[in-house]
Specification:
Blueprint: H1 5-19, E1 40-42, H2 44-52, H3 56-68, E2 77-83, E3 87-92, H4 94-107, E4 121-125, H5 137-155, E5 159-166, H6 171-187, H7 202-214, H8 221-239, E6 246-249, H9 250-255, H10 258-268, E7 272-275, E8 278-281, E9 292-295, H11 304-316, E10 321-326, H12 334-343, E11 351-355, E12 359-363, E13 366-367, H13 380-396, E14 405-408, H14 409-412, H15 420-437, H16 454-464, H17 466-476, H18 480-499, H19 507-531
Parallel strand pairs: 4-5, 4-10, 5-6, 10-11, 12-14
Antiparallel strand pairs: 1-3, 2-3, 7-8, 8-9, 12-13
Helix pairs in contact: 1-3, 2-3, 4-16, 4-19, 5-13, 6-7, 6-8, 10-11, 11-12, 15-18, 15-19, 16-18, 16-19, 17-18, 18-19
């Protein structure tokens, strides 16, 4: 697997820093926001100048001179400039982009892969909703983010697995059972005063009817209803294109010796103590703001107790990196859980927790009000039925996970350029149509030096940024940038196609342009595959 352009540039910069006497420096590359300033830029000269009290322009000049003398830079760098206050901007040669096109046409999607993961085993745990109702749009957003991030990590050389932690024991299951019981009594003719904190959706009536027919006893109603709803959840996720490798039961965990064993381990290490009849975990040792109760004075467990055992079990199963996706109401829980894995001997960096912000659904320009308990909320099923899997997945990924998401159902249904997923898919379909209709076939042997138009090179450059986009998704643990990239790639193609004829009278130029759009199609297809979105040949 060859090095990508960022790795090549970073190697050149590090070698130049050694020559200039800067032995220790963290170098980062960015895409310039203004394309007049090259293809990549770095502020390393500014950082070093500040530390060493030097003129940033002088530092930049030394670095640039050393790179220009390095034979490894020949062939893919056209020019390096020190611009602005001391930024070093790299202008890549057209030959570099031609070689990238040849590579993609020769090897297909394999040419786009990078081995960042080096086979590291990763467990992504997400959604993990209580089986007390259909999945909400908040769960749907987590499902999209987790599923696509797993696909991207697999593409980048990791070995990811996906897990749903099943909250099938506890107060919520008890409330669910009691809710069904009250509806059963209501169906039998009783006048019922329904508590505000019980589940009130129409689905509770449906479960009550079935439970009544099956003569389910009161003590079994929680499990019966939970299993019934879990089947619905699994079907919703399947239709959304999300398949979990594991379904991990909290009930099975608590019925095992795993919690007891992990407590014994923490006690032996001196991280548990008793006070006021409760058992406490010394989480402050690892940076938490206060110690945490794991067993209350009434001997019942807090949420943290099974969570500690659960995460220790993840490591015992051989996973090296754990990624959890939580809703914003769990933000305060991060430090105590990270403290627990450190107490058990693991590196804090082995656990990454992604807070996925909520989503608001808009219809007719107005937000749809939601209330989980009363069942007055837009479900994943309703979104799927209204806009389809492709639009649902794409739209749920169109903002950073750290940002609130506004999902406009009306836009998601449009068959026009206003709809981002339609716009990207149309680019793929449009290219497919051109390639089908051409008597000349695209291949890697085309004369790419004929591609000189601004829009041709803009498209070639955008194609070459795919691997860097994957790199960004991995470094941020957020697939959002892939949706941005695919829209930009679609835009670059549509702009090129609107201004230049692909099938012209010059066979050599036609062949080069066909190869260009064929490479575009390969990259579009790879991106859509990672998103779990279809890639239509016709539209």
């Amino acid at each position: 697997m060859k090095k990508n352009i960022q790795e090549l540039l970073l190697d050149l910069i590090q070698a130049a820093l050694d020559q200039c006497g800067f032995k220790e420096a963290d170098v980062y590359l960015d895409f310039p926001t203004d394309k007049r300033f090259g293809d990549f830029t770095t502020n390393i000269a500014l950082k070093l100048a500040k530390v060493h009290k030097r003129n940033p322009r002088e530092v930049a000049a030394c670095i640039i001179d050393a790179i220009n003398k390095n034979a490894s830079a020949k062939g893919f760098i056209r020019e390096i400039k020190a611009e602005g206050a001391g930024f070093i901007n790299f202008y890549l040669s057209d030959d570099y982009y031609y070689e990238e096109l040849k590579e993609i046409l020769s090897r297909g999607p394999e040419a786009l892969k990078i081995n960042l993961g080096k086979g590291k085993k990763v467990l992504l745990e997400f959604v993990s909703a209580n089986p007390t109702g259909s999945l909400s749009v908040a769960h749907a957003r987590q499902a999209a983010v987790g599923d696509v991030l797993a696909s991207i990590m697999d593409f980048a050389g990791f070995k990811p697995k996906k897990e749903f932690y099943l909250n099938d024991k506890g107060n919520q299951i008890n409330i669910l059972g009691n809710s069904v019981d009250l509806r059963m009594r209501e169906l039998a003719g009783e006048q019922i005063e329904f508590p505000e904190n019980y589940y009130q959706g129409e689905y509770i009536y449906e479960i009550a009817k079935i439970a009544k027919e099956k003569k389910i006893a009161h003590e079994g109603l929680g499990d019966f209803a939970g299993n019934y709803i879990l089947d619905i959840i699994k079907k919703e996720l399947e239709d959304f294109g999300v398949k979990f490798d594991y379904w991990y039961s909290q009930k099975a965990l608590e019925d095992s010796d795993k919690i007891k064993n992990v407590f014994e381990k923490l006690k032996d290490k001196g991280y548990l103590y008793e006070e006021e009849g409760a058992l406490w975990f010394k989480s402050t040792v690892f940076g938490d703001d206060k110690d945490r109760v794991v067993i209350k004075s009434d001997k019942s467990m807090t949420y943290l107790a099974p969570d500690i055992a659960y995460h220790e079990d993840k490591f015992r199963r051989g996973f090296e990196l754990l990624i959890n996706m939580w809703g914003p109401d769990h933000h305060g829980y991060i430090n105590r859980l990270k403290a627990s894995i450190q107490a058990l001997g693991h590196d804090a960096g082995a656990l990454s927790i992604i807070i996925v912000q909520l989503a608001t659904i808009y219809r007719d320009g107005k937000p749809v009000q939601m209330s989980t308990r009363k069942g007055q909320y837009i479900t994943l099923r309703e979104v799927l039925d209204e806009v389809g899997k492709d639009a649902a997945r794409f739209f749920f990924l169109m903002r950073k996970t750290s940002s609130h998401l506004d999902f406009d159902l009306d836009t998601a249904k449009k068959q026009s350029a206003d709809n981002p997923v339609y716009y990207v898919q149309y680019a793929h379909a449009r290219i497919s149509s051109i390639l089908r209709s051409s008597a000349i076939k695209a291949d890697k042997h085309a004369d790419f030096t004929l591609l000189k138009e601004k829009e041709e090179m803009a498209l070639a450059k955008k194609i070459a940024q795919f691997t860097e986009t994957i790199n960004v998704c991995i470094s941020t643990l957020d697939p959002y940038m892939l949706t941005v990239y695919l829209q930009e790639l679609g835009q670059a193609f549509h702009k090129f196609y609107d201004l230049h004829r692909v099938l012209g009278t010059d066979d050599a130029l036609t062949k080069a342009r066909l190869a260009l759009i064929d490479a575009t199609k390969i990259v579009l297809a790879a991106g859509l595959d990672l998103l779990g979105v279809s890639k239509p040949e016709k539209m």
